[in-house]
Amino acid sequence: MDWEAFFTLHHDLPREGPGAPEDVDWVLDETGLTGAVSVCDAGCGPGGDLETLADRLPEAYLTGIEMQAGFVATAARRCARFGDRVQVRQGDMAEPGGPHDLIWCAGALYFLGVTEGLKSWRSALAPGGFVAFSEPVKLQDEVPQAAQEFWQEYPAITDLSGIAARVDAAGYDVLGHRLIVGQPWENYYAPLRRRIAELRAANPDPALVEMLDMNAREAALWEAASDHIAYALMLVRPR
């Protein structure tokens, strides 16, 4: 990965993956969390969901954890208006501190593995605490070629029952799920496509051209099979 090219493309994008404020609303409605709770956004990227969580939980204390320094800086700027109750730090999302009433992880738990990550987070949860994470999900056995190519680099993708089995293996119960399909993906790809077009017009160097091409192909594959490409937002809790 050419990280300089990556961050030239992804600098200050609003999101680093599919999602929408409604996803946060669903989790908060399902959990009933309110007041001065502790929330961790593990792998917070540029802070899109962290900002929404802080908006929706005006008395909460939130921590965003992110490995990439560029995203840490963006998330910190984005959430500066919330003052000291929102902290963003560079670090490993496998070590989220705590205890937290909610660990939120949008499209990043697969870096740790669902079972492995949930096991490591058990000690970071307050009694009765929740984990909400989104994971690639296969909607049906037969999918278009574009969807197959889209997920080619993630062969561990399963259907919902497969995700539930990995959750169960970690000693957690599934409390509910919500499919992330369609518009939440456009929320990610629309700004990305605009940035690609801007950078192509600015005579990019070969490394950046390669990065633009790779991301443009990903966006095109999603467009070709958008009804068949999804994440499952899973709400789980330790047994």
UniProtKB/TrEMBL annotation:
<feature type="domain" description="Methyltransferase">
    <location>
        <begin position="39"/>
        <end position="129"/>
    </location>
</feature>
<keyword id="KW-0808">Transferase</keyword>
<dbReference type="Pfam" id="PF13649">
    <property type="entry name" value="Methyltransf_25"/>
</dbReference>
<keyword id="KW-0489">Methyltransferase</keyword>
<dbReference type="GO" id="GO:0008168">
    <property type="term" value="F:methyltransferase activity"/>
</dbReference>
<dbReference type="InterPro" id="IPR041698">
    <property type="entry name" value="Methyltransf_25"/>
</dbReference>
<dbReference type="GO" id="GO:0032259">
    <property type="term" value="P:methylation"/>
</dbReference>
<protein>
    <submittedName>
        <fullName>Class I SAM-dependent methyltransferase</fullName>
    </submittedName>
</protein>
<dbReference type="InterPro" id="IPR029063">
    <property type="entry name" value="SAM-dependent_MTases_sf"/>
</dbReference>
